[in-house]
Write a structure and sequence with these properties.
heterodimer; A: alpha+beta; Arc Repressor Mutant, subunit A; Glutaredoxin; 2 domains; four-stranded mixed sheet; 7 helices; globular; B: alpha/beta; Rossmann fold; Ubiquitin-like (UB roll); 3 domains; 17 helices; binds flavin mononucleotide; binds iron/sulfur cluster; binds FE2/S2 (inorganic) cluster
């Protein structure tokens, strides 16, 4: 678990975050999910995922809309959202792709720290930051469960293995810039 | 001894069995069909209980026994929560199960739901398993289409829905009540127990939480019987009346400084040394091992001379580790600094403490700060006793925290210092870290997100 502490600087591509409301099909999906759980609140996490998948962040107006759909107060939705460092504020949205590099033990034993430095250098951003073109956000991950292929990373929710091998990281970053 | 034939991983290299058609052609869902038609729910529970299956998620609690804790004569809803949060560092066995053989896990889920009379099962899966999540969802969709999920499965009066619920990258969602809180849409703050989930769990209803590997075992136990299951693994230690044995096979994960990292299924009780030498191909670069974590970060550290311990539920405890944990072994070689290893582990727990209990929130943060200071070359000799004192005081065992994360955070500290005290002292005396280490684990990122 991790939380963003204090206001973060507004990143250059934050201006591109659209204003509300949520697209109709996302609202529909959220409503559809209500049938799966005996409480409306249980749809909070799926709703936050649907929102961030589309907007690359969860803006305050979306929190209010989700709260409204789930009969909650916006503060309740925000309370859950802020627990998971995973969700991004509108002032600091994810780039088109999130590149997270694992730093836990099995990866660290095989050079994860150097790779993180290298990736930060290649992208010209600090960990947590997004490239100026809004293409890639670089983040850390704790063990992503790909330790047999360490050092490993993820792009959004997919694993990439053995990223220390010659050219693998370069190729990946190149592809992400094009995406 | 004849080579062990994998059970849980028998379809590892049969990608055609990822589809319902392929799985059925390979004999899949026959056990379920037989159980639904010929066995009562209680009979399924009894078979699992008598087989002595213990949970594979880390705590090793007897599975069938847990199922019997559900209130008797309850006519309200019961839930099954499948705990595929799998965030214990160096653990990836369930990723293999859901990516390579989703229907085996689902057959286990349906059997368990039948036994505990659940009509809804939530498959809680960590966000990081995108591929596995999609594989499971496809398999679930196939089952609905074939009448193996939904109303009146196989024409019986048993109905079941299985819903996938994705996490959001937080380790604490693997703790069973943290999982339940997260499922309910709140922050994943573990609950004070009792009540245990079997009495009051998801949505305040009786709930069973099980690990996917546990549930995959259920399929084979119902198919082949308890005696078969007990022919694998290690029987209870006669000298220990509280030992419930370590029956069955286990998926062992091997990573770190080994030649062949990977996963292997073996009867419980293989020694760490055999796992490393035979299945992991030995230590890399022709080096010697310095130590290993035997079961994920939380279990603590064992030294190379301790590698002869069996990896069953009792083995790691014999050398002062917390337990078998997830049976995920990560080996580090002789050139690795123990300070680097401990720093990496402390950083993990400080990052993942949910912050609810002060001893855990502050304790994990302070342990990290102190280890960081040591690593930077500014440690003092008394830091070792401060670390040990903090580590001793946080956790369920000393009675200061709500969940076991804090015990798991303390154990690596205690075992590292006790077992490598001379190395820590030498590091402290020199005042600066000795050059770089082969692992090159750096400090620079310590404060990152
Ligand atoms: C901090 C913490 C993290 C845990 N993470 C997991 C996990 O990722 N997966 C899991 O199955 N069990 C995990 N557990 C254990 C669960 O609380 C629970 O015992 C387990 O899911 C029960 O399933 P089983 O009996 O089939 O093993 C964790 C426990 C703690 C204290
Ligand atoms: S022990 Fe730590 S992780 Fe567990 S509930 Fe308390 S603060 Fe949270
Ligand atoms: S430690 Fe990096 S994937 Fe497990």
């Amino acid at each position: 678990m991790s939380q963003h502490h204090g206001p973060k600087p507004v990143s250059p591509h934050a201006a591109k975050v659209p204003a509300g409301p949520l697209p109709a099909e996302i609202r529909e999906k959220i409503v559809e999910l209500l049938g799966r759980y005996p409480s409306k609140q249980a749809v909070t996490l799926p709703a936050l995922h649907l929102t961030q998948d589309r907007l690359r962040c969860v803006p305050p107006w979306a929190v209010e809309e989700i709260a409204d759909l789930l009969d909650l107060s916006p503060a309740e939705v925000h309370d859950t959202l802020s627990f998971y460092g995973f969700f991004r504020p509108a002032t600091d949205p994810l780039g088109k792709k999130r590149l997270w590099i694992c730093r836990s033990l099995a990866c660290a034993l095989r050079g994860a720290d150097q790779i993180l430095d290298e990736a930060a250098h290649k992208l010209g951003v600090e960990v947590g930051g997004t490239t100026a073109d809004g293409a890639i956000t670089l983040e850390l991950a704790e063990c992503i469960g790909a330790c047999e292929a360490a050092p490993a990373c993820m792009v959004d929710d997919e694993h990439f293995h053995h990223i220390d091998q010659d050219g693998v990281l370069d190729k990946l970053v190149g592809e992400l810039r094009q995406a | 001894m004849a080579a062990f034939e994998p059970v849980l991983l028998q379809r590892l290299n049969k990608p055609e069995c990822k589809t319902l058609e392929g799985y059925r052609a390979d004999g899949g869902y026959r056990t379920l069909t037989r159980a639904l038609k010929e066995m009562s729910p209680d009979q399924v529970t009894t078979v699992v209980k008598d087989a002595g299956l213990r949970g594979r998620g880390g705590a090793g609690f007897p599975t069938g026994l847990k199922w019997t804790f559900l209130p008797k004569g309850n006519s309200g809803p019961v839930y099954l929560c499948v705990n595929c949060d799998e965030s214990e560092p160096c653990t990836f066995n369930n990723r293999y199960l859901i990516e390579c053989d989703p229907h085996q896990v689902l057959e286990g889920i349906i059997l368990a739901s039948y036994a505990i009379r659940a009509r809804v099962a939530y498959f809680y899966v960590r966000y990081e398993y995108g591929t596995g999540t999609r594989t499971m969802q496809r398999a679930i969709d196939e089952l609905y289409a074939a009448g193996l999920l939904g109303k009146n499965i196989l024409g019986t009066d048993f109905s079941l829905d299985v819903f996938v619920h994705r996490g959001a990258a937080a380790y604490i969602c693997g703790e069973e009540t943290g999982l339940i809180e997260s499922l309910e849409g709140r922050r994943a703050w573990p609950r004070i127990k009792p009540p245990f989930p079997a009495i009051e769990g998801a949505f305040r209803k009786p709930t069973i939480v099980n690990n996917p590997e546990t549930l995959a075992n259920v399929v084979h136990i119902v198919e082949r019987g308890g005696e078969w299951f007990k022919s694998l693994g290690v029987p209870p230690d006669p000298k220990n009346p509280r030992d419930a044995g370590s029956y069955g096979s286990k998926l062992y994960c091997i990573s770190g400084h080994v030649n062949r990292p990977g996963i292997v299924e073996l009867p419980m009780g293989v020694t760490l040394r055999e796992l490393l030498e035979v299945h992991g191909g030995g230590v890399w670069k022709g080096r010697k091992a310095k130590g290993a974590i035997p079961g994920g970060n939380s279990m603590g550290i064992c030294t190379e001379p301790e590698f002869d311990i069996p990896l069953d539920f009792n083995g790691p405890g014999k050398v002062g580790c917390l337990g078998l944990g997830t049976a995920a072994v990560t080996v580090f070689d002789e050139t690795t600094s123990i300070v680097d290893v401990l720093h990496n582990i402390c950083r993990f727990f400080a990052h993942e403490s949910c912050g609810q209990c002060t001893p855990c929130r502050e304790g994990t943060a302070w342990m990290l700060k102190i280890v960081e200071r040591i690593k930077r070359g500014q440690g003092r000799l008394e830091d070792l006793s401060i670390l040990e004192e903090v580590a001793d005081k946080i956790g369920i065992m000393p009675g200061t925290t709500i969940c076991g994360l804090a015990d798991g955070a303390g154990w690596p500290v205690k075992t590292a210092i006790r077992k490598y005290r001379d190395e820590f002292k030498a590091y402290l005396r020199e005042g600066t870290p000795k050059g770089g280490t082969s692992s090159g684990m750096r400090l620079s990122m310590a404060a990152g997100h």
